[in-house]
């Protein structure tokens, strides 16, 4: 489960078996895990995060979207 980025308490990663799905990133903070599709960017599951946390996580995903997509393709291939 490659970690792509850590920002404060947030960890951004994907699972090694995510290959069959479109590019996305999981966001973990404590015992909560959300999932964002990357293209187009949208929340897929909120995993117990409150609205403020989701807003913060989305901002980080927006700022690093290209990095996440590149990491996805580097890991899984195109």
What is this entry, summarized?
The chain has 78 residues and is an alpha+beta fold. It has one domain. 33% of the residues lie in helices and 35% in strands.
Distance from first to last alpha carbon: 18 Å
What is the share of helical residues? 25-40%
Unreliable runs: none
The total domain count is 1
Label the structural class.
Answer: alpha+beta
SSE ordering = EEEEEH
The biggest sheet amounts to:
5 strands, antiparallel
Number of strands: 5
Gyration radius, rounded? 11 Å
Mean pLDDT score, rounded?
96
Strand content: 25-35%
Count of discrete alpha- or pi-helical segments spanning 4 or more residues: 1
Shape label:
globular
């Amino acid at each position: 489960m490659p970690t792509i980025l850590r920002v404060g308490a947030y960890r951004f990663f994907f699972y090694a078996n995510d290959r069959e799905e479109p590019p996305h990133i999981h966001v973990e903070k404590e015992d909560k895990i959300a999932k964002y599709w990357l293209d187009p960017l949208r929340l897929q599951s909120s995993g117990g995060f409150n609205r403020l946390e989701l807003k913060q996580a989305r901002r980080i995903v927006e700022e690093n979207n290209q990095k996440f997509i590149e990491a996805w393709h580097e890991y899984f291939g195109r």
